[in-house]
Structures are given as structure tokens and as C-alpha cells.
Amino acid sequence: MPAAFTAQERARITEALLAAGYELFSTQGLRKASLEELVGPAGIAKSSFYQFFDSKEALYLELMLREAGSVKRRVIDQALRTTDDTREALRRFLRATLDELTTNTLWRRLTTHPEEMHAVARKLDPERAAAIGDNPATALAEFVTERQRDGGLIDADPAVVVGVLQAVLLVPLHADHLGDPAHRDRVLDLLIDIVTAGLTLTRERN
């Protein structure tokens, strides 16, 4: 018979599972993180895990949704959407996202291993998985389409424009190839200036 937990115990165990999941998924990924490692810090049996989450994927999704909301607020609401100037908006987005990737280990994992997000979505019911759609990538794609319609961005496939911006975000993950560490910040700043200038139309480059 499954163990009975008080409301206080359930709250503590849930947070312990989320904390363990954050650490393990960030460093090992979805596949390698074992159930034993997840339940250990919470002090519960493996069988009791399913009283809190239906699967490892469900735990991962909960973490993804928490991260997506907070990351979207920082890189979209507090950066991309804070100016009407398209070039400056993209600059702010890239710099805020680079900061996020430096400090947020789980979001960096999701950025570099998108297959894990897809694996989670495939195993969940459509309504729950659809919640992943409210994330920075979706908001960025909407911004690109909107600014193209308004004449602020070059006329290219929106997916390609988003891909160019995402390519900039992957550069710091290979920082060892950027030469002298003392120059890395200036390299990134110049790269951001060149990319955003190339994506925005002439009238917005003043």
C-alpha cells in the first residue's frame, strides 16, 4: 500500500524532487538521471515517486515550464519588448539571453539539447505539452514575424532569422575557440552588432 504523506510532507518532497531534478537534468540530462538519484534527497522510495509525478518526463516538464516562464520574463518582457527600435530590441534580447545561458544551467541544457524537450513533449498529453509553447523561442518567432510585417526586419524566412539569432547564442558554448579570453566580451559585442545590423533594415540602423 502506498505511503500516506501529510500536506506538509508532500510540499517538502515535491520541492526536494524538483531541486534534485534541476541538478540532475542540468548535468546529466533526462536519460541518464536515474529514479534512485531523484528520490534520494527527498528520502522516499522509488515507488513513492509516482505519487508526485507520473514519470521523469513529467518532472522535467514541470521544471521546463517554471524556467520558461521566468526566462521569458527576463529575455522577452524585460529586454526584447522594452523598445520600439528593432535593432536595439534584438541587441537587448541577445545580451539578456547570453546572460541567462551563463547563469541558468537548466536553460543552457535545454538550449544545447533540444531533443530532450521533444522527448518530453512526445510522452505527455497534448494539453499539458502545449504549455511548452509559451516560451522565449515562441515569443521571439512572433516578434520576428511582427517586425517583418512592419518593415523593421529583412524579408527572409522567419525561421531563418530566428536561426541566425540562435546561432549567436551558441557561440559562448564554444568560448575556448574564441581566442584570448580577455577579448571574448568584445568579440560577442561586435558579433551582436554585426548580426543585428544585418537583420534590420537601413532606416533602423541609425
Automatic annotation (TrEMBL):
Range of residues in the leader sequence: none
Molecular function GO labels: DNA-binding transcription factor activity; transcription cis-regulatory region binding
Keywords: DNA-binding, Transcription, Transcription regulation
Domain spans labelled HTH tetR-type: 11-71
Domain of life: Bacteria
DNA-binding stretch(es), residue numbering of this chain: 34-53
Stated name of the protein: Transcriptional regulator
Species whose genome carries this gene: Saccharomonospora cyanea NA-134
Classification of source organism: Bacteria, Bacillati, Actinomycetota, Actinomycetes, Pseudonocardiales
